[in-house]
Design goal:
The complex is a heterodimer of chains A (80) and B (244).
Chain A lengths: L14 H17 L12 H17 L20
Helix pairs in contact in A: 1-2
Chain B lengths: L1 E9 L3 H9 L10 E11 L5 E10 L4 H7 L5 E11 L4 E8 L6 E12 L2 E15 L5 H19 L13 E4 L10 E4 L14 E4 L39
Antiparallel strand pairs in B: 1-7, 1-10, 2-3, 3-4, 4-5, 5-6, 6-7, 8-9
The chains are: A mainly alpha (80), B mainly beta (244).
Organism (chain A): Oncorhynchus kisutch
Family (chain A): Belongs to the TRIAP1/MDM35 family.
Catalytic activity (chain A): a 1,2-diacyl-sn-glycero-3-phosphate(in) = a 1,2-diacyl-sn-glycero-3-phosphate(out)
């Protein structure tokens, strides 16, 4: 029996939206983007719905996504 | 502060490796990643795709680490920024932890490029900077973490070496259709001289100033052809707890 593993979203309620978007993105990425086909992104609407859900989950869980820069030359990470 | 770098070779062309890298999770070699979300995605004026992602990770912190760090929290978050350039055939990925930042900093940089001598082969360069702050034995912990990352990376292959346990064999993606997740198969390690492992890991302790990212030297001998990957899939290796 083949078990297909799927990834979850950080927000439990967003997982279905995430998987739908991921499927759309992966297809576009492989079949259009990597072949340098710039004809429109079919996933925009799906992404908006998914994003709305994720942003809400991030706020609810107080995940500190803002204000942290990647370390590199002359960058300091604020303590949190 | 400890700096660690390594290099992996995959016997697949760049596009194949990139497609799998974008869909790296879930990944049986790293069950600690429990959630992945895209925060933002856009194309820049040069046609490169930028993705900002949030990874949720769940660690089983060993008791002693919890005691030293003074925290029982096991859910941590990592922010990741990737840039894919389909014209130049280069994918860069930067990640950093955004929780426990008052205790530890783990910053990683990954670059995927075709091998300069063989376009059917892809080279991944990984670098990491680890800093443990504000606790005693920080230098010891940093050394431990760097050693663990180095050991993990020897096993993990295309996956970031951060807290991924591993003993031999690199894991790489097999070609799949867009709808199917990649399967992970062990790659033959490119062993140039007397079967010594190809990857180089070096650690340096720097004084406490902001590091600069130096490219790791590609130590692949010219003209070395990669061996064919094994068809045996090994998905369930034992793994250790992450170092933090």
């Amino acid at each position: 029996m083949l078990i297909v593993l799927k990834m979850n979203s950080v927000g439990e309620d967003c997982t279905d939206l995430k998987r739908e978007y991921d499927q759309c993105f992966n297809r576009w990425f492989a079949e259009k983007f990597l072949k340098e086909d710039r004809s429109g992104d079919p996933c925009t609407e799906m992404f908006k719905k998914y994003q709305h859900c994720v942003q809400k989950a991030i706020k609810e869980k107080n995940i500190p996504i803002d204000g942290v820069e990647f370390m590199g030359p002359n960058k300091e990470k604020p303590d949190s | 502060m400890k700096i660690w770098s390594t290099e992996h070779v995959f016997s697949y062309p760049w596009e194949t490796v990139i497609k799998a890298a974008m869909r790296k999770y879930p990944n049986p070699m790293n069950p600690n990643v429990v959630g992945v979300d895209v925060l933002d995605r856009n194309l820049d004026t040069d046609g490169r795709l930028h993705s900002h992602r949030l990874l949720s990770t769940e660690w089983g912190l060993p008791g002693i680490v919890r005691a030293i760090l003074g925290t029982g929290h096991t859910r941590t978050y990592v922010k990741e920024h990737s840039i894919v350039d389909p014209e130049e055939k280069k994918m860069e990925l930067y990640s950093t932890n955004i929780t426990l930042t008052n205790l530890v900093s783990v910053d990683e940089r990954l670059v995927y490029r075709p091998h300069p001598d063989n376009p059917e082969v892809t080279v991944l360069t990984q670098e990491a900077i680890i800093t443990v702050k504000g606790v005693s034995l920080s230098s010891y912990l940093e050394g431990m973490m760097a050693l663990r990352m180095s050991a993990n990376a020897r096993k993990e292959g295309p996956i970031r070496g951060l807290c991924r346990p591993h003993d031999q064999g690199l894991y790489h993606p097999t070609p799949t259709s867009p709808d199917k997740p990649p399967t992970w198969q062990p790659a033959q390690t490119n062993l140039p001289h007397g079967n010594q492992p190809r990857q180089t890991s070096h650690m340096a302790t720097s004084p406490d100033k902001a590091p600069t990212w130096q490219p790791a030297q590609t130590n692949l001998p010219h003209g070395n052809q990669p061996s064919q990957p094994s068809l045996v899939t090994r998905l369930h290796r034992g793994h250790h707890n992450p170092p933090w």
